[in-house]
């Protein structure tokens, strides 16, 4: 009886093993030495290249080298037919598939899509879905029910806007891409496709904001509407950045600083100071109380002067201006540079 049970057990083991026929035996020590010695260095080269590639849209040469290395690593591990080696091959395949969604034309295309969504002036269907929501469930619903809209936009895009191979890759991997676009990555490591796609959404806003910023600086004389538009877009950008783990504190503070500086440059206080300078008003003579050493009284005196020379608005603006000075002269030199 015991013999029978043992036999059945043995058969079961054999059956299980044979249904698992695609799997490989554990590597022999010779095979291990082979895959560490031969494939290890190629894999390390690939890992280093991946790690040192900071831009999602690197030079084509880098993308080509990455693709080549992926092929080489897969071939190398695949040629050693034992379990650990095949595992390594599969791990690398997974990473390399991710690379194609992270570097090159695909992220460039995703960014282009976000730009179209923001502009909504060409593809009408983009208006119908909440693609930009920071609520991941809402965003997932948008990308799921708006699938045919997204495809239509990509299909109608021009070659120079979106590479055809990238469009095809997005078609093939749409569900996976939707996962990457709509999974909250804030609690995970800030790496991989997911945080990158969240950042691409902000990069579109950032590009627009930067161009407005340099326009404001270059023109020097800005209308209230221009300034209000710039400040509003800055708030949209800051909101977006706060949902991305890939922006540094410095990058976020820079937006804040530019907003404060723009407000300052166009403030009633600065207009008043310009007036005082241009009209060569001798303020110390006219307002002896400015010499007062008491901070509180000195401030009252400045306010009186501003109000009399330029109106209440300028006086009310004094505190905000002082805050800006403290900010700019404080420990923020690394932001301002
Ligand atoms: C990537 O490179 C940096 C420095 O160059 C290093 O600190 C980091 O550990 C590397 N990451 C990986 C995954 O190798
Ligand atoms: C790409 O590969 C070529 C040939 O192996 C090499 O000469 C070149 O330096 C590589 N470029 C980069 C950016 O890694
Ligand atoms: C877009 O193009 C792909 C491939 O060419 C095709 O399979 C798909 O049906 C097209 N989608 C739309 C909405 O035209
Ligand atoms: C700035 O623009 C306003 C209105 O656009 C104009 O009245 C004013 O003269 C301009 N100032 C300078 C210094 O160019
Ligand atoms: C500025 O930095 C200095 C040293 O770097 C520090 O002692 C000081 O407290 C800082 N001031 C503020 C307002 O953070």
UniProtKB/TrEMBL annotation:
Pfam families: DUF19. Residues 27-182 form the T20D4.11-like domain. It comes from the Eukaryota. Transmembrane segments: none annotated. Residues 1-21 form the signal peptide. Keywords: Signal. The keyword Signal applies. This is T20D4.11-like domain-containing protein. It comes from Caenorhabditis remanei.
């Amino acid at each position: 009886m015991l013999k029978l049970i043992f036999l059945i057990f043995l058969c079961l083991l054999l059956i299980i093993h044979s249904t698992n026929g695609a799997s490989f035996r554990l590597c022999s020590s010779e095979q291990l030495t082979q895959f560490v010695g031969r494939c290890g260095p190629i894999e390390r080269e690939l890992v280093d290249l991946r790690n040192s590639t900071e831009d999602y849209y690197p030079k084509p040469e880098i993308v080509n080298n990455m693709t080549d290395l992926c092929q080489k690593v897969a071939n190398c591990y695949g040629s050693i037919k034992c379990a650990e080696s095949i595992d390594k091959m599969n791990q690398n395949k997974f990473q390399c598939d991710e690379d194609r969604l992270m570097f090159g034309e695909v992220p460039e295309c995703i960014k282009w899509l976000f730009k179209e969504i923001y502009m909504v002036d060409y593809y009408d269907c983009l208006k119908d879905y909440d693609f930009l929501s920071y609520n991941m469930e809402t965003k997932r619903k948008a990308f799921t029910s708006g699938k045919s809209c997204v495809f239509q936009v990509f299909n109608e895009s021009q070659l120079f806007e979106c590479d055809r191979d990238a469009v095809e890759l997005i078609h093939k991997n749409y569900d996976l891409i939707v996962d990457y676009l709509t999974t909250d990555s804030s609690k995970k490591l800030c790496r991989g496709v997911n945080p990158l796609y969240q950042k691409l959404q902000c990069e579109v806003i950032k590009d627009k904001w930067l161009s407005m910023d340099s326009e404001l600086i270059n023109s020097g004389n800005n209308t209230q509407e221009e300034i209000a538009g710039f400040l509003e877009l800055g708030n949209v950008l800051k909101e977006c950045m706060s949902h991305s783990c890939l922006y540094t504190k410095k990058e976020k503070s820079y937006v804040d600083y530019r907003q404060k500086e723009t407000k300052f440059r166009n403030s009633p206080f600065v207009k008043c100071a310009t007036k005082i300078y241009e009209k060569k008003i001798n303020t110390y003579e006219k307002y002896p109380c400015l010499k007062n050493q008491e901070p509180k009284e000195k401030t009252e005196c400045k306010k009186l002067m501003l109000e009399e020379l330029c109106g209440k608005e300028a006086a009310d603006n004094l505190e905000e201006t002082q805050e800006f000075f403290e900010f700019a002269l404080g420990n923020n030199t690394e932001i301002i540079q």
